[in-house]
Amino acid sequence: MYVEGSRPDLRVPFAEVELAGDNPPVRLYDTSGPGSDPEVGLPPLRAPWIAGRGDVAPVSGPGTPLAGVRPTQFAYARAGIVTAEMEFVAIREGVEPEVVREEIAAGRAVLPANVNHPEIEPMIIGARFLVKVNANIGTSAVTSSIAEEVDKLTWATRWGADTVMDLSTGKRIHETREAIVRNSAVPIGTVPIYQALEKVDGDPVKLTWEIFRDTVIEQAEQGVDYMTVHAGVLLPYVPLAVDRVTGIVSRGGSIMAAWCLAHHTENFLYTNFAELCEILARYDVTFSLGDGLRPGSIADANDAAQFAELRTLGELTHVAWEHGVQVMIEGPGHVPMHKIKENVDLQQELCSGAPFYTLGPLTTDIAPAYDHITSAIGAAMIGMFGTAMLCYVTPKEHLGLPDRDDVKAGVIAYKIAAHAADLAKGHPGAQAWDDALSKARFEFRWEDQFNLALDPDTARAYHDATLPAAPAKTAHFCSMCGPKFCSMKITQELKDYAAQGMKDKSDEFLSSGSKVYLPVLP
Amino acid sequence: MYVEGSRPDLRVPFAEVELAGDNPPVRLYDTSGPGSDPEVGLPPLRAPWIAGRGDVAPVSGPGTPLAGVRPTQFAYARAGIVTAEMEFVAIREGVEPEVVREEIAAGRAVLPANVNHPEIEPMIIGARFLVKVNANIGTSAVTSSIAEEVDKLTWATRWGADTVMDLSTGKRIHETREAIVRNSAVPIGTVPIYQALEKVDGDPVKLTWEIFRDTVIEQAEQGVDYMTVHAGVLLPYVPLAVDRVTGIVSRGGSIMAAWCLAHHTENFLYTNFAELCEILARYDVTFSLGDGLRPGSIADANDAAQFAELRTLGELTHVAWEHGVQVMIEGPGHVPMHKIKENVDLQQELCSGAPFYTLGPLTTDIAPAYDHITSAIGAAMIGMFGTAMLCYVTPKEHLGLPDRDDVKAGVIAYKIAAHAADLAKGHPGAQAWDDALSKARFEFRWEDQFNLALDPDTARAYHDATLPAAPAKTAHFCSMCGPKFCSMKITQELKDYAAQGMKDKSDEFLSSGSKVYLPVLP
């Protein structure tokens, strides 16, 4: 279902779960989009909003930003303007549009929405809003096809991915990205250095600012909504990572480190950062300032290399803001639980409240094949402490490329982490979902319980595995205890019993100091 | 491999992982036991230790505790005696035997070891030691067979379960338990009220102290190492649970609540607690004081009913200690992240430091079919805060009975949580495992990485899924980036480069105030 905003073309999607009896329906945030035909792409929902602002010249296909204009949500917010995109996310999040505008204007939230990606249903990333989840997809030199990646995109958003990063390497990067952007109702992120590296045959030493810049423009014109840029990997920081257990594990970070060392020159992303800002501003591409020196193991967490880079990202945040560009900051990685909070606190301090976007973190290194779990632990905690978006990790992390099942496993684990964080932060309305499901569980409304589940298909299948018969779906017991031995059934009976005045007796007892039963103990 | 203690029959098992090159082998805690033939059972490792203490009369089969004697590890520890069992766990944990004795004597740790379960390899549960994991198995009225449950036991300990609870209901409870105890190298826990209830045809109202007592004696004679007893579900507390979203979700709790209300009489487990202590003391059965009023939903966490019961469990802890009985305390359940720490702090305070043993907790209710993950998040955190043992939750929780795959999924998720907690607590030696695996990963020693993984089979299978060829196992790249584009490979190259003096330049730069590159930014 849709909730209409102040104009008829502003319709915000929700998934509404109907429940049995007189239980009110539950309305859930919905990332799945209107559904696309890959041959055609999605309808350009935002096209009239963008055109209406008059800062993009209409051409066939995507519009061209007018020269000298910064049509960014950040610039509008600072100018006091509530855009249609801001109103859209306000309805989605259940807050006033002015709250959205304020958070964006303060740099505490980003609304990634390239003027050339009119297909998206706007969403917001910021600590005051629901914690978001990103899913990574993309072809590699070794495997995968374009159709497969578009399918992964649709699959990821069906299960709740709020943004998707296309990390394609190898051949046909441009075509893959075009297919993904045109079919995506969620913001798309990329790491442009990957494509730039392909242009120089995979040799980092041959990279130049010009090749990178042209790649960024190419991707911005296609409609990429946010880009990871490793501008904080500075030449003097590189040696700080050399004695680590796992050195530099970020691909972008290692590419830039290799370039810096080979040329004995400062990172060209850093030295050309102002020009880069101007390019991103023209399309409203959001910066995702990459953590090229993030720790890749428990041993390397919170070390000098990591925090040196974070300090630089804090400086660059202000430069980006001065150019009207939205910014979020990427974070680790591998971090043991007791070192997680320091990451958020320091990032918020050094980066003046810009949204934090973290990969996990994994809380132990010992479980390859289960890193969706090792990292969901860290992700939930870092979300509770204030991280705005969590980049998923799939079971294949460190081992291979995620297939469809891995994408789903990663998204579900991270939706759990994000929702657990929303609950812990006391996000208004977050607990209503839990309460509705728990009430259905307690009342043996099995179908309601399944339909409210993050993954109704699997919940239903697991129930069927033990008690396949249809009557079991309405039974007031389950397979754990069997028909004559159910705690929930007993409690229901207690409720009737208790209604007969037990409450009074209890109050009397408790007010007398609860001592009456102690003497029986020796 | 085994490490021998002060006597030749005291041999402590470890799994030793051999690594390539000159990397030292890694020694891991091993719960898998010596392997048993289900027809015969395990050899009685502890038999000579128990007999040597002279407080158990030898009979064919298990020994009979001598009248009036309390042959408990707690009593020995208080008397200043380091038993063979204590020495065994000291070697397992890498601490001095005196540390083990002190922690047991103070009540801060338990060493569950029924004198009639000589087959176990002793282990310890306490906040100062490695965080432990329990796996629940057991037949139900609806499904499962004895052979299947023994297989689940072996399977659970193979993946790292430190104790196993037999929660059988329905028919053949005694025979099932006998098979499980005789084949278990880990302590076995039960909830005797389940079997007592079977004896009265499933009607809680017909339960009596005498039926319960005889059931406890029957199970103690078989060798059950710890028993859950819901002695804290007091009559006046029951109404406190009536207005909850999910009432009473503990089976034992709801049985006792039903009994209390039906008879208008205080819980017979509470009124006969001293006699129960004397029975448990004779066999050295450890109390696991059950949380019959634990919250079954986020909405009910940390409420009056839960904490009223916890206060009573604190009183009962001291009664048990006075009788020489070891005690641990069970905890929730469903708890949002921000309310987890309060649970541990209050339990430690009210129960004078007795070990905490928690079920999860689940940090959200919305993900049936993934509750091993919702709860691994809570388990890791509560472990970090001081919980000594984590009771696993499988993907089938709330939906059906766990099969073999579910048991493994639950154990692995909880080994991750427990190890993450060990790391966060700074347990000596915990990080060595992570470091060894991360070093292997960084050096592309794929086989070492697999062999060090919690689940080598699945890690290997996932790697094969993308790069099946044997040469890929020795390749200095993986499927994520392909051969010419690997961050770890680049870092290795950086190491050589950096050795040529980059470190000096960096130090010089950093000591100059790191300002040299800032002017290039506008």
TrEMBL record, chains A, B:
Binds 1 [4Fe-4S] cluster per subunit. The cluster is coordinated with 3 cysteines and an exchangeable S-adenosyl-L-methionine. It catalyses: 5-amino-1-(5-phospho-beta-D-ribosyl)imidazole + S-adenosyl-L-methionine = 4-amino-2-methyl-5-(phosphooxymethyl)pyrimidine + CO + 5'-deoxyadenosine + formate + L-methionine + 3 H(+). The gene is thiC. Substrate binds at residues 136, 165, 194, 230, 250-252, 291-294, 330, 357. [4Fe-4S] cluster binds at residues 478, 481, 486. The keyword Nucleotide-binding does not apply. Pfam families: ThiC-associated (PF13667), ThiC_Rad_SAM (PF01964). Residues 1-56 form the ThiC-associated domain. This is Phosphomethylpyrimidine synthase. One of its GO terms (biological process) is thiamine diphosphate biosynthetic process. It is an enzyme of class 4 (lyase). Belongs to the ThiC family. Its cofactor is [4Fe-4S] cluster. It comes from the Bacteria. GO terms for molecular function: 4 iron, 4 sulfur cluster binding; phosphomethylpyrimidine synthase activity; zinc ion binding. Zn(2+) binds at residues 334, 398.
